[in-house]
């Protein structure tokens, strides 16, 4: 049977993996066109440039199967050349500190996405785990302006509600949640309420729906049918053009890395995030999405709940491609 993705654009809006040939090949063989890779969480400026240097070596080592994408044409060319397109993103604003000039330097290195916050308060705004959300700061307003000018995607995935609304309203370009789910699906601090989602769509933004267990109804036991019915409800609420997938898949890491994600160097205690029973290990993925190529299961699941194929392919990639073209060309 021919893969239905063969002639389609399929995009994963975000993954955080310890990349190797096996993972790249899984995505490529599964028909995935492009993936945004997380470069950093808490790393400083120097460490971040070092991460970029490591990726430059990857593009040489794996040049037969991956290519670097800095715009939508690069994504399309990768598809034509049967390679996986790699896009760079930050899950925090830590690399720029309080230096707005660093944005252009990172943009010149190919960084196309940056979260304003990662759970905590930053120089830019409030995180979703803070008891008080400051909203977008003075520096945050300046950074939003600069990201708009450069063509860098403003990612609000880990921001607080007020900061999200401020950024959506202040930005002159659409913004995104690259990896999150609606709050109506699961009551997580990371998920997004109806008002924010409607504001996002009104301004032309996109939410990439997450497969990370703590963002899902019943966590690791989430059923594919429930996930797909959630998509139907969300599409009915904000429109088909504003929904994508950002799996937040985390593969090939030791458990100590999940603690780095939660703790960085900002605390001497252990912050367990939303894990149950103070777990210090990676949560188990639902059995229908354990690897990147399992996009095919979402495709089949959406068909089963009655979504038209043309709409499915919007969600699985075309919406992201249109959004990328609008933001960074």
Can you tell me about this structure?
By secondary structure, this protein is α/β, with parallel strands linked by helices. It has a single domain, classed as TIM Barrel (Alpha-Beta Barrel), CATH 3.20.20. 39% of the residues lie in helices and 13% in strands. The protein has eleven helices and nine strands. Strands 1, 2, 3, 4, 5 and 6 form a six-stranded parallel beta sheet that branches. Helix 3 links the parallel strand 3 (66-68) and strand 4. Helix 8 crosses helix 10 and helix 10 (295-304) packs across helix 11. The chain is globular and about 55 Å long. The mean pLDDT is 97.
User: How many strands, which pairing sense, and closed or not: the largest β-sheet?
Assistant: 6 strands, parallel
What's the CATH class label? Alpha Beta
Oligomer: single chain
The ordered H/E elements are EHEHEHEHEHEHEHEHEHHH
Overall mean confidence score, pLDDT: 97
Strand residue percentage:
5-15%
User: CATH superfamily, please?
Assistant: Metal-dependent hydrolases
Question: What is the CATH topology assignment?
Answer: TIM Barrel
How many structural units, i.e. domains? 1
State Rg. 18 Å
Count up the helices: 11
Distance between the termini: 35 Å
β-strand number: 9
Overall shape: it is globular
Low-confidence stretches: none
């Amino acid at each position: 049977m021919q893969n239905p993705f063969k002639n389609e654009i399929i995009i994963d809006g975000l993954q955080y993996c310890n990349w190797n040939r096996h993972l790249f090949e899984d995505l490529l063989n599964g028909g995935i066109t492009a993936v945004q890779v997380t470069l950093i969480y808490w790393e400083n400026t120097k460490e971040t440039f070092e991460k970029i240097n490591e990726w430059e070596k990857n593009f040489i080592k794996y040049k037969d199967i991956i290519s670097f994408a800095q715009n939508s044409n690069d994504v399309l060319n990768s598809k034509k050349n049967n390679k996986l397109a790699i896009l760079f993103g930050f899950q925090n604003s830590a690399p720029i500190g309080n230096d707005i000039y660093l944005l252009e330097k990172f943009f010149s290195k190919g960084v196309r996405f940056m979260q304003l916050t990662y759970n905590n308060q930053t120089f830019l705004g409030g995180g979703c785990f803070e008891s008080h959300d400051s909203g977008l700061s003075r520096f945050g307003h300046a950074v939003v302006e600069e990201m708009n000018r450069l063509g860098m995607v403003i990612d609000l995935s880990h921001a607080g509600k007020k900061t999200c609304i401020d950024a959506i309203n202040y930005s002159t370009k659409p913004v995104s949640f690259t990896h999150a789910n609606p709050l109506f699906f699961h009551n997580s601090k990371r998920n997004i309420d109806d008002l924010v989602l409607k504001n996002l769509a009104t301004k032309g933004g996109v939410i990439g729906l997450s497969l990370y267990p703590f963002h899902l109804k019943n966590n690791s036991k989430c059923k594919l049918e429930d996930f797909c019915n959630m998509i139907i409800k969300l599409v009915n609420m904000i429109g088909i053009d504003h929904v994508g997938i950002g799996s937040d898949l985390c593969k090939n890491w030791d458990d100590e890395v999940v603690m780095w994600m939660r703790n960085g160097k900002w605390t001497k205690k252990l912050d367990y995030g939303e894990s149950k029973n103070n777990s210090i290990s990676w949560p188990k993925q639902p059995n229908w999405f354990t690897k990147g190529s399992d996009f095919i299961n979402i495709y089949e699941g959406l068909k089963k709940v009655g979504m038209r194929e043309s709409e499915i392919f919007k969600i699985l990639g075309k919406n992201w491609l249109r959004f990328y073209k609008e933001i960074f060309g």
